[in-house]
Design a protein that fits this description.
The protein is mainly α. The protein contains four helices and no strands.
Length: 99
């Protein structure tokens, strides 16, 4: 990957380096300025995605309990979403330290 931290200069460097299409991964890294920054953005996005799923699942559980259609796997899914949200949030914190 490019040693250049300016996104436009990094994209220019990639265009000169490649004889053909630039890989999507290299383009994303160039746009973000560094691989660490890209990984941080991805981890923060995943953490928010799973937090959003957990909030939605809580609403579903409440509605299902209210109408009598609740089943135990809904809680298992909620546990998975919370676990994944914590895992990705931890990864984002680790990457912020490296940045």
């Amino acid at each position: 990957m490019s040693p250049i931290s300016d996104p436009l200069a990094a994209l220019d460097w990639l265009e000169r380096r490649y004889d053909g299409p630039i890989s999507g991964e290299d383009r994303r890294i160039a746009r973000c300025g560094s691989e660490t920054r890209l990984r941080l953005i991805e981890a923060a996005g995943q953490a928010e995605f799973f937090r959003h799923l957990a909030r939605g699942q809580i609403g579903i559980i409440r509605r299902r309990r209210g109408d009598g259609s609740f089943y135990a796997e809904l809680v298992s899914d909620l546990a998975l979403y919370r676990r994944e949200a914590r895992r990705w949030a931890k990864r984002a914190r680790e990457l912020r330290i490296q940045e």
